[in-house]
Specification:
There is one protein chain. The chain is an alpha/beta fold. It contains 9 helices and 13 strands. It folds into 2 domains: 25-61 and 206-289, no CATH class; 65-203 and 290-324, Vaccinia Virus protein VP39 (Rossmann fold, 3-Layer(aba) Sandwich), CATH 3.40.50. Helices cover 33% and strands 24% of the residues. Residues 4-8 have low confidence and may be disordered. It binds S-adenosylmethionine. S-adenosylmethionine (SAM) is lined by residues 44, 47, 52, 55, 59, 67, 95-97, 101, 118-121, 147-149, 166-167, 169.
Length: 325
């Protein structure tokens, strides 16, 4: 007799809250940025589905030390972090991407009350949240497609809230923006809330520049994705081969700056507009600010957090800051 086929397990539901649509659109931001005297595009628009996939590839590159260093730190310290969070904590992740580092914390947290990933990359967020829900049965997963710098309310949850902002993503913000963002999240996390931030440290410029300009050209493809996205979504005709990629350490500003540089004078169309480029004209696409250990702790204090612990690796490449609201 034939045995009945096993019933496929029901796909666990993810609550999906879409707030990004009410935020500034790619079209508005791109056209405004290209109309400036110093052309620039906000880096959050790098992350469409292809941008998120390219970022995942960057994380595996030999030059890109942040991912592996932060992962090692998290594995070594997850027990202490989970003890500080206590039982039933709700984990809220800013810029959650593929939610990979998240698992290190979820594996150690004591009966976590909820996982709430916040990311602008809609499709990628949906898929990553579904994988977490499938792998952690019984965990409430609420995905928020939103700009983490925009004002919004978190869904109600029991227990302490712990914000998790890994990947040195905070480095994409200026120091003033980082302080304002931490201040807003201190309020949003509520009294007793914790915030765990991954912060890349200042170091030898050659190592920093290599991390953002890898030999395989993946970071170049990631940065050029902003023009590919304009071609696809805004009926653009940028010729990606006529832009060079440049990643430079700026010691005064304490950041790596990523630009696209026009090779030859040219014009390109997007969103029904025509943009002219002089030979060598730049589009500023992304910054990655680097900190000293004490410098970041002082910034977090200025945002109203107290520093509960800070962890770094032997080579002092990367740091994790555990902050308390
Ligand atoms: C540098 S990646 C880090 C990904 C992952 N957290 C990690 O550590 O590997 C930045 C992530 O933040 C998201 N992101 C960038 N700017 C954002 C914004 N303003 N609001 C929400 N998400 C944002 C991107 O879509 C991307 O998934």
């Amino acid at each position: 007799m034939l045995k009945p086929a096993p019933r496929p397990a029901a796909t666990p539901a993810v609550e999906f809250i879409d707030l990004a649509a009410r935020d500034e659109s790619f079209e508005e931001a791109f056209l405004a940025g290209m109309s400036r005297r110093d052309k620039a595009v906000p880096c959050r628009f790098l992350y469409d589905a292809r941008g998120s996939a390219l970022f995942d590839e960057i994380c595996t590159l030999p030059e890109y030390y942040p991912t592996r260093t932060e992962t090692r730190l998290l594995k070594a310290r997850a027990g202490e972090i989970a003890a500080a969070a206590g039982p039933h904590a709700a984990l809220v992740e800013l810029g959650s991407g593929s939610s990979v580092k998240t698992r290190i914390l979820l594996d150690r947290l004591d009966r976590p009350g909820a996982y709430m990933p916040v990311d602008v990359s809609r499709q990628h967020l949906r898929a990553a949240a579904a994988r977490i829900a499938a792998d952690y049965p019984g965990l409430r997963v609420v995905a928020l497609c939103a700009d983490y710098a925009a004002p919004f309310d978190l869904p109600h949850t029991e227990g302490r809230r712990i914000g998790f902002f890994p990947g040195s993503t905070i480095g994409n913000l200026s120091r003033a923006e980082a302080k304002a963002l931490l201040g807003a999240w201190r309020v949003r996390l509520g009294p007793g809330g914790l915030m765990l931030v991954g912060v890349d440290l200042k170091k030898n410029p050659a190592m920093l520049e290599a991390a953002y300009d890898d030999a395989a050209g993946v970071t170049e493809a990631f940065i050029k994705n902003i023009l590919a996205r304009a071609n696809a979504e805004l009926r653009g005709d940028f010729d990606l081969a006529r832009f060079d990629y440049e990643a430079r350490w700026n010691p005064e500003a304490g950041r790596v700056e990523m630009h696209l540089v026009a090779r030859g004078a040219q014009r390109a169309r997007a969103g029904g507009r025509v943009f002219s480029f002089a030979d060598g004209e730049r589009i500023h696409v992304e910054n990655s600010h680097k900190y000293g250990l004490e410098e970041f702790a002082a910034l977090a204090r200025a945002a109203g957090f107290s520093s509960k612990a800070r962890y770094t690796d032997e080579g002092r490449l990367f740091s994790l800051h555990l902050l308390e609201a």
